[in-house]
Write a structure and sequence with these properties.
476 residues; alpha/beta; TIM Barrel; M1 Pyruvate Kinase, Domain 3; Pyruvate Kinase, Chain: A, domain 1; 3 domains; eight-stranded parallel barrel; six-stranded mixed β-sheet
Length: 476
């Protein structure tokens, strides 16, 4: 139950990791949340993976979060008469709405949204930025460009339009069908891809309601123009460095990553860092030194979670990749400079008893050298407040809501136990002490700090802080 680290690990499941046996190994190695990429797999296949995760949850007794990551809008060129074409630097190349097969002079671009937003001087990036076109002229159904970086382009390669807010809905028809399906399954988090505006997140939240939490993936530079507004409306955000690294100069991505983490921390919202963190482990049993430093830097910055993509979904060494992430995070968190870094970024406290008691619990636990801070919560809001204080003292969350326990598995430092709510004040103390002993968070004579809300079972009413000492609890 106690991971011995605060940074959480998200592992993507796929061909290398879709059965109960391997998912259990990933969980034992340190995976706290499992990601299902909705770009791949049929609904029956996704349902099977979901069931396997829940089986592992029953076996291990840990609350496991499931993130369903929607595909989002995909912009692609059409096809070429020979399957591909070579674009030469300095040549003119046209993108149009004609569905005929293309050649080295033109190709179909079946996305009127790009024609609406494109302007002279704008760059278009093809095939993950390998080919760059500069727009010279925009007509009604034709964009005339100059090739500034040439190369071979083949059928249906992706198109990126940097620094332009495209008039695209964040949810495609496929996304809406997938969303309905995974909500019926009972996933805990929904990842919204290619978020550009707060309205993109709100559209998803209007459909989802309270059935799942919403994670906004920040991979378009346009999202940075409304960063604080997007963070405010989201339940969590992700630094998705794949497309961000295509549309931004690569040297700008690290600073943008730190900015997003910093703003999310200030707002008290969970933040995830993703993409190519241990990319070499797709085919290698060990990561590169540079990858280890990349993961470590994300942990030092205070991210809530770090994520594996192809490394765990399709790589040869999925369990080893999770294990390395676990080792890196543990080592970083043992460094004195880690705690100093966490204390530099203060969250904005609201003038409420819940925020005041969360801040006080951290101070009291530090002063008394308490073994653990125990937080009772129903909706999860009290636990989120406790986590954003980044206390040195371990955090144990007790909740009667299994869905809450699963969602909180993505959040920094939270160790959640699904249990019945306390019935009275003494039961609150007894239950906290018993569970602390059962899961080795505390032992005989240790002090613990407890926060809760009275009357019990009332969401969002944290109004009690209690100091207790472990006595006479013997758990079989």
């Amino acid at each position: 139950m106690h991971r011995q680290r605060c940074t959480r690990i998200i592992a993507t499941l796929g061909p290398s990791s879709s059965d109960v046996e391997i998912i259990k190994k990933l969980s034992d190695a340190g995976a706290d949340v499992f990601r299902i990429n909705m770009s791949h797999g049929s609904h029956p296949e996704i349902a099977s993976i979901h069931a396997a995760i829940r089986d592992v949850e029953s076996i291990t007794g840990r609350s496991i979060g499931i993130l369903a990551d929607l595909q989002g809008p995909k912009l692609r060129v059409g096809v070429f008469s020979e399957g591909k074409a070579e674009l030469v630097r300095g040549d003119e190349f046209t993108l149009d709405m004609d569905s005929k097969a293309g050649d080295k002079t033109r190709v179909c671009l079946p996305h009127p949204e790009i024609f609406q937003a494109a302007e002279r001087g704008t760059d278009l990036l093809l095939d993950d930025g390998k080919i760059r076109l500069n727009i010279k002229k925009v007509e009604d159904k034709k964009i005339i460009t100059e090739v500034t970086v040439g190369g071979i382009i083949s059928n249906r390669k992706g198109v990126n339009v940097p620094n332009v807010i495209l008039p695209l809905a964040a949810l495609t028809e496929k996304d809406k069908k997938d969303l309905t399906f995974v909500l019926e399954l009972g996933v805990d988090w929904i990842g919204i891809s290619f978020v550009q505006r707060p309205e993109d997140v709100q559209e998803a939240k209007d459909i989802i309601g309270h059935r799942a939490a919403v994670l906004a993936k920040l991979e378009k530079p346009a999202a940075l123009y409304a960063l604080d507004e997007i963070i405010a409306i989201s339940d969590a955000v992700m630094v998705a460095r794949g497309d961000m690294g295509v549309e931004l100069p690569m040297e700008e991505v690290p600073a943008k990553q730190k900015k997003i983490i910093r703003h999310a921390r200030r707002a008290g919202k969970p933040v995830v860092v993703a993409t190519q963190m241990l990319e070499s482990m797709i085919s290698s049993p060990v990561p590169t030194r540079a990858e280890v430093s990349d993961v470590a830097n994300a942990v030092f910055d205070g991210t809530d979670a770090i994520m594996l993509s192809a490394e765990s979904a399709a790589g040869k060494y999925p369990v080893e990749a999770v294990s390395f992430m676990d080792r890196i995070a543990r080592k970083v968190e043992q460094e004195p400079s880690y705690r100093k870094a966490q204390s530099k970024e203060e969250t904005r406290l609201e003038p409420t008893s819940a925020d005041a008691l969360s801040a006080a619990a951290k101070q009291v636990a530090t002063t008394l050298n308490a073994s653990v801070i125990v937080t009772y919560t129903t909706s999860g809001s009290t636990a989120l407040r406790a986590a954003r204080e980044r206390p040195k003292t371990p955090l144990l969350v007790l909740t009667p809501n299994q869905n809450t326990a699963r969602r909180l598995s993505l959040v920094w430092g939270l160790n959640s136990v699904h249990t019945k709510d306390a019935t009275n004040f003494q039961d609150m103390i007894d239950k906290a002490c018993q569970i602390c002993v059962k899961y080795n968070f505390a032992k005989q004579r240790d002090r613990i700090v407890i926060t809760a809300g009275m009357p019990f079972g009332s969401p969002g009413k944290t109004n009690v802080l209690r100091i207790a000492r472990i006595q006479k609890y013997h758990v079989e």
